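Attaching the record inline, Q. Sequence:
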Amino acid sequence: MSKVHLLLFLRHAAAALVFGLLGAPAFVAGAQAPEQAEPASPDPLIATSAADDSEIEERIAAIFAQIDSLNSVTVSVQDGVVTLGGTAANVSASDRAEQIALRLQGVVTVENQIDRTLTIEEGVSPLIGSFQGRMRSFYRSLPLYGLALGVFLAIALLANMLAGWKGLWRRLMPNPFLGELISGAVRLVGILIGLVVAMNMLSAMAMMGTILGGAGVIGLALGFAVRDTLENYISSIMLSVRQPFRANDHVVIDTHEGKVVRLTSRSTVLMTLDGNHLRIPNSAVFKAVILNYTRNPERRFNFDLGVDANDDPVAAMQQGLAALNNLPFILTTPAPEAYIETVGDSNIMLSFHGWLNQEATNFRKARGLAISATKDALETGGFTLPEPIYRLRVEGGGEPAPAPARARPGPKARKPVQDQDPETAADVAPDHHIDRKVNEERAGSAEDDLLDAGRPVE
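Structure, as predicted:
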């Protein structure tokens, strides 16, 4: 090989080497490009291989031909821009056509120029078709509906039979009112269980949840509206369980005094000492301070008498206690007592106390006779029951004249009482007239009574 040929060979070899070094990255990149580039995945709902405007137009038109509401829609495609024309029955059909066109591969944008037709046929036909479809579905589901209704009625009937077993609930509950309450609750729970089972069979639990949610909201609103009624109802339950008094008990509820006639599911009925009917809501009774005079037959009375400031108060108390001890209706245990209440400007106030048995003695009559006997005993013993004394001062009239000395009056002579039997005047036997009226009221009324003599009184 000549020297010239050798130089040419070396030149071509160097050029080839340089070209190879410079082109290798591009070659490698070109070789790896097909592996890195991922082809666009077709729409999962509408698979199409349309590549040009005509194929896109044909594809959209074929789709619209299969949909009754889009038969009148026309399609034209130019450079990937789809123009929709023609008519549609409503706005939803027009929007549906636009969404279908946008889901095809190769579509750039959609120009929606569809006009809505207002013909009666096209407007009513979808409704008629939908109604017919629903009726066919309902007709096919009639056996399932019948089975669900039968299950609901069976469960509701079983719950009603169980709730109507009054003997069971009366034995389990402390009073008939709670028995009826539990019976109604069992009936309601049975109906709810039957409704849930029937809805579950019809795969309508979502509807059941909606109904229960609406019922909850309505129940909350009604609860606020009838809050006082619910409070009274709950108070009736608590009073029927606690039994704070018995029939014919002499009670004072707040400022209301009388004999208990009955406890109903709404109110407490009293017979006042004047013989009148008095109804007190149970909510007020439950929160009230109740004073029961019948629970303890022994009851203490008290009264005050004043003697002159110059008298001996201790001797006056002994004289008064002696008069009280002589009364046959005053209990000796505990014994009567007296003490000095206050010392005034012109008198000394003495307080006397005594005990009596209400079951054998009329409280008000006995107290009145005790006051009369004590007053007579003090006057007979020479003690003065002074009247109020007022001193008047006259300005500008000189020195006032000295007050004359008061003479102690002696005991006043009693005037004879004509046609008065002493035994009748001293009669302190209890008056049972109100008790008889209460018994007649309880016997002649069909109103429910929650008071149970067999339960302890709290």
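The radius of gyration is 53 Å. Residues 1-50, 413-422 have pLDDT under 50 and may be disordered.

More tomorrow.
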